[in-house]
Inverse folding.
C-alpha cells in the first residue's frame, strides 16, 4: 500500500479521498493548500501525491515542480477541471505521473486507479534498480570456493540459516569472504529477488553513516537540497549487510538498536517514522564480546545482532582449498588480461600452500592477479608474498618444542621470522583452546591481559 498526500483547497474533496483511500489500506494525509503540501514534502516521503491544479496563491503545477525537485521518486497525480486540455498537457510535460478530470461521480474511482498504477510502477522501478544493483555481484554457494570440511560445514550452515528470518553475525578475519557469505545467505533465502545492500560501517564518520543508513530530508543540514532515501529503505523487503559493525560509534549503536527493535526508521531532519522490512546481517573482524566487556560495544545490540553467529574460517585453517582458489583466480584474471595461462606451476602451488596468508583469500587473490600480470608463459609461476613462508612452514611443523629437542636445518633459518611465527602460533592455539576469549588465552600463556592484547594487535589476530 502507498503513502499518499492529498492536496485540494476544497476540504470536502480531501475528506472524500481520505475515507476512500484509507479503506483501500493506504496511509493518507490531507492538506488544503499547496504551501502546506510543500512543507510536508520537505519533511516526509510520499509514494504518491494527489493535488488539484487550480488553487489560490500557489497552484498544483508549482507544487508538482517542487515535488520533482525535492522528492523525485514520488509519483504526482494532478486533478484538472473538465475541458482543461492545455493544463493537462503542461502537467505531463512538467513530470506528472498522471492527470484526472474532476467529475462529480467518477473522481474517487479515477484516483484509486491512478494510485494503483503509480504503486505498480514504483514497485517495478525499485525491483529493476535492485536487479541492476545485484546483477554484477550476485553470489551463491558456488562462489564460496573450497572442498575442505570447514567450507562444507560453512555451506551447510548457510543453507540452514537462510530459511530463517533471524539476524546474523558473521565473524572472521579480514579477507576471509564475509560479504560472500552474507550474499549467499540472501540468495538462498526467500528474499533473493529483493535488494541486497552492503554498507561498510567503518568507511563513514558517525554523521555520514546516519544519513547513509536512514536518509535525510531537504534542509536537514547544509547541502541537503532534496530528500534522500537511506539504505535501510532502499533494502526494504531484502537484506542489508552491515560490514565492520565493530567500528560503529556508541551513539550510532543506540540508533541501530532502535531500528532493530521497532522496525521503523526516521530520516535525519524528518518527523515521521517509516516502517521497513529488512533482514540484517552484520559482520566484524573484531572480538565483539571483549568490546562488550570494555564498554565499547553495547551488550543489548550485541545480543540483538548475534541471534545466529557464523564463523568464517581463515585460509590457513583450510590449506587444501588453496589450489582451487588459485586456479579460480587464475582463470578470472587470465581471461581479463587475454592471456593463455592454463595452470599454476606445481612448485608455486607448494609455496602458496606453505604460506599462512595473514590477509586470507583477499591476499591470495591479489597475489594471483599480480602474478598473471607479470607472467608471459603458459604456466603461472608465482611466489608466496614473503620469503618468510619457509620459516613459517617450519614453525607450524615443529610447533612449541623444547629448545633441546630442536634441530637447526642445515640450510639455516630466519631466526627473527621463526620466533615471530612461533609466537603467533602460540597465540592462535591459545585462542582456539579458549574459544576466542582473550582473558582466558592470556592465562593459558601465563601473560598479563594487557601483554596478550598487545601481541594480538601486533599479529592482527
Amino acid at each position: 500500500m502507498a503513502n499518499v498526500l492529498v492536496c485540494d483547497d476544497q476540504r470536502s474533496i480531501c475528506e472524500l479521498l481520505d475515507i476512500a483511500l484509507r479503506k483501500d489500506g493506504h496511509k493518507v494525509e490531507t492538506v488544503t493548500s499547496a504551501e502546506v503540501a510543500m512543507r510536508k514534502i520537505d519533511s516526509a516521503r510520499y509514494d504518491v501525491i494527489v493535488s488539484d491544479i487550480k488553487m489560490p496563491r500557489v497552484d498544483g503545477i508549482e507544487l508538482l515542480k517542487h515535488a520533482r525537485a525535492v522528492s523525485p521518486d514520488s509519483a504526482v497525480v494532478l486533478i484538472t477541471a473538465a475541458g482543461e486540455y492545455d493544463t493537462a498537457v503542461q502537467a505531463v510535460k512538467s513530470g506528472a505521473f498522471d492527470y484526472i478530470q474532476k467529475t462529480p461521480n467518477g473522481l474517487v474511482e479515477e484516483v484509486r486507479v491512478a494510485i494503483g498504477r503509480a504503486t505498480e510502477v514504483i514497485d517495478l522501478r525499485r525491483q529493476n534498480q535492485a536487479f541492476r544493483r545485484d546483477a554484477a555481484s550476485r553470489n551463491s554457494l558456488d562462489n564460496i570456493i573450497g572442498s575442505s570440511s570447514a567450507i562444507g560445514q560453512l555451506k551447510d550452515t548457510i543453507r540452514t540459516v537462510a530459511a530463517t528470518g533471524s539476524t546474523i553475525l558473521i565473524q572472521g578475519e579480514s579477507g576471509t569472504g564475509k560479504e560472500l557469505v552474507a550474499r549467499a545467505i540472501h540468495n538462498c533465502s526467500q528474499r533473493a529477488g529483493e535488494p541486497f545492500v552492503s554498507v561498510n560501517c567503518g568507511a563513514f564518520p558517525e554523521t555520514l553513516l546516519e544519513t547513509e543508513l536512514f536518509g535525510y530530508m531537504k534542509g536537514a543540514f547544509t547541502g541537503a537540497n532534496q530528500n534522500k532515501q537511506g539504505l535501510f529503505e532502499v533494502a526494504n523487503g531484502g537484506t542489508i549487510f552491515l560490514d565492520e559493525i565493530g567500528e560503529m560509534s556508541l551513539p550510532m549503536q543506540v540508533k541501530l538498536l532502535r531500528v532493530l527493535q521497532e522496525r521503523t526508521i526516521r530520516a535525519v531532519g524528518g518527523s515521521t517514522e517509516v516502517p521497513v522490512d529488512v533482514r540484517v546481517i552484520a559482520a566484524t573482524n573484531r572480538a565483539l564480546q571483549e568490546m562488550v566487556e570494555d564498554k565499547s560495544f553495547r551488550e543489548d545490540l550485541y545480543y540483538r545482532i548475534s541471534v545466529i553467529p557464523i564463523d568464517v574460517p581463515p585460509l590457513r585453517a583450510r590449506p587444501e582449498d588453496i589450489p582451487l582458489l588459485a586456479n579460480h583466480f587464475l582463470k578470472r584474471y587470465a581471461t581479463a588480461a587475454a592471456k593463455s595461462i592454463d595452470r599454476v606451476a606445481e612448485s608455486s602451488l607448494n609455496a602458496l600452500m606453505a604460506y599462512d596468508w595473514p590477509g586470507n583469500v583477499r591476499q591470495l587473490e591479489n597475489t594471483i592477479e599480480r602474478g598473471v600480470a607479470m607472467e608471459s608463459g603458459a604456466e603461472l609461476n608465482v611466489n608466496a608474498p614473503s620469503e618468510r613462508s619457509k620459516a613459517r612452514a617450519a614453525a607450524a611443523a615443529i610447533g612449541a618444542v623444547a629448545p633441546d629437542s630442536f634441530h637447526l636445518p642445515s640450510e639455516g633459518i630466519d631466526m627473527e621470522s621463526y620466533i615471530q611465527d612461533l609466537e603467533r602460533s602460540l597465540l592462535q592455539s591459545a585462542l582456539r583452546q579458549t574459544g576466542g576469549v582473550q582473558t582466558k588465552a592470556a592465562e593459558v600463556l601465563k601473560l598479563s591481559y594487557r601483554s596478550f592484547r598487545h601481541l594480538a594487535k601486533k599479529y592482527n589476530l
Remarks:
- The chain is about 50% helix and 15% strand.
- The chain has a mean pLDDT of 86.
- The longest strand covers residues 75-81.
- The CA atoms of residues 175 and 359 lie 6 Å apart.
